[in-house]
Amino acid sequence: MHIIILLQRLEDLYDYLDLTREELDLLDMPRRSFTVHFPVHMDSGKTRMFVGHRVQYNDARGPAKGGIRFHPRLTLDDVRDLAFLMSLKCAVVNIPFGGSKGGVVMKK
Length: 108
Hints:
The protein is α/β, with parallel strands linked by helices.
């Protein structure tokens, strides 16, 4: 599910959730995101380059937390969506963390 659809659903729940327009606007974009390329020395003796993504979506409730996904077709958009969902999960259960997510593209 892409972030646009998620934000539209939040927009539909705008009144029910008792969110201000400012609060909803804060969820519109991640705070920061970046992509890195890094070498890994494999057991075979060869060195392979990997691509990693990290998105810190929102830290309004506290430090951003989230895990790492490893997948061959992982994109920055996927990681952004997962970080957004982590922000919502933390808010729903009322823990003092924001949402983030990382990922590594694991091509063969």
